[in-house]
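In this supplementary section we document a worked example of the pipeline. Step one takes a protein sequence of length 318 as its only input; no multiple sequence alignment statistics are reported here. Step two produces a three-dimensional model, which step three serialises into structure tokens for compact storage. The input and output of this example are shown verbatim.
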Amino acid sequence: MDIQETWMTMSDQEQIFLKQWSSHQTKPKAIILLIHGMTEHIERYYHFAEHLISHGFVVYGYDQRGHGKTANDQQLTFGYLANTKGFERLTNDAIEVTDNLREKHPSLPVFVIAHSMGSFVARHYMTHPEAAMLSGVILLGTGMQPKPLLIIGKWLAKMLGKWKGKATPSPFMNQLTFLGYNKKVENNTSFDWLTRDQETIQAYIEDPLCGFIPTHQFFYDLYKGLQLIQQKDRAKHIPKDLPIYFLSGDADPVGQLGKGIKKTYHFYQSVGLSNLDLTIYPEARHELFNESNRFEVYQHVLSWLDKQMICAQKTHSV
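The serialised model returned by step three reads:
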């Protein structure tokens, strides 16, 4: 496996850390762009990327603003996205990275696979015109959040930011956001809601680039972003035939233990999207790629990707 690490300058002149996994032994059949979740980083997807490469894909991922090497190596504040419109900036980053990958591999289809906060970014991406160029989107650990919670959360984050500083870590907002998540499962740590795999939990706890407390501005941006992606008028801009695959565990609190992911699925049905698939895994928690049944998830993802590529080939040949 060949691994390349680079830095990409974005349209606002900020730089993000970009990673590529590929194989010189096989010709790639498609591009996969991975978008990671909140308070983690792209290196945690190494094993999944390795699996994808072994099946003929070239894989890219990047550390989002305020995360991973993008924050650490530039001595930037963890959990701080931008002075204004941070969520929109994350979305623009995803679009710009995809455009860059398409220039490198003009003949290959592009799929986005996004987890948790990354899935929220991808869902916003889908409402932009550039989404028409995607061959499919896979969303893991996503859901629908109650509108009153988003209104209150955004207001609180804004007020606390004015009082204590926008770039200051916010233990209160962190507690509010994740309140009750760990109570849904048997737990020995604060992060047992992520996965049943205890080795993964321990590695997460010991990883200095994981589990940090984001800033007040981050939580404002997050709640604002959740409001944006749950607006029907905005969702109606998504290409009606864009293939989208939702995966969740029925013990994932972000997906409201299966209820929220079903609401998300039906939300996109209600705006006219016609190419949707949904898989819910019994007893699985938030991080499906790190779950005890991860290889089952891997296989479902690969089967879905292959199905979309076959469908696309048939369409082009007609």
